Structures are given as structure tokens and as C-alpha cells.
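Notebook entry, structure prediction.
Reason for the run: the old model in the group folder had no record of what sequence produced it. Starting over properly, with the input documented here first.
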Amino acid sequence: MHYKQAMPHDYDLIMELWSKSVQATHPFVRAEDLQQIHGEIPAYLPHLDVRLWYADNDVCIGFSGVQGHHLEMLFLDPEHTGRGYGTQIMRHLVGESGVTSVDVNKDNGPAIAFYKKNGFAVIGEEPTDGEGRPYPILHMKRMTGME
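New structure, fully documented this time:
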């Protein structure tokens, strides 16, 4: 597995991956909210360390966005989940980028389980997302010594 830094010309691919992933993993989000969020994401991307992740066969399997030590986004193409790619990406992001925190939708049980498996624990909760929408957010922090 390898990555490349995302550039503005990659944003269409990123948004395509985001849409496919969210359709598969976020059934709790209303369609109108997904449309609004879809419009907001491109404005965030220039402020993040965004990486496109590729399997060994050079197929793009997902993307991540990091700001400081916080994982802002990690989305995988649903056709490539369950194969260990997410865990490999997390190991890389923790080891190379020093990621120590992530926020997760409280209603996204599989994502919460994934981050717990990768050494993160819930340290707080907000009743809404960052834009005030009715989607509770869990704040998670990586606990040292957990592998």
C-alpha cells in the first residue's frame, strides 16, 4: 500500500470516494444533510494534509485528511473494506503523522469499533456535528501503549 498527496485536481475523485463511502456507512444522515456536507468538504480540503491511498495494484482505495495530530477524515471505497486497508492506513497515520485524535458520528458503530480496535477510546461527546446538525459526535483519543 502507498499514498500520494492529493492536489486540487484530485478533488473530484475524493468526492466520488466520499459519496460511495458515506452511502454505505452513514444511513443515519438525511439526504439533504449529505448534499450540504458534500458541498462543504471541498472548502476544507486545502487546509488538510490529504492523501489518496492505493492498494499494491495501484487502485485508489480511499483518502485521509489530517490537520495537526487530528484525523479529520478517513473514507474507504466500500468495495475495498474488510481487507485490512483501514488498519494499514491508521498505522501509517499514527506512526508517520502522529495522529492521536479523531471525531466519529455516534451512530456509526462500525467506525467506532474500528477506531477502538486501533487504540482509540471515547473521551467526550457533542450533541451535534460541527455545523450544528443533529448528529452526535464522539471525540476519541489514541491511548498510549495500546496496539
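Summary: The chain has a mean pLDDT of 93.
The old model has been moved to the deprecated folder.
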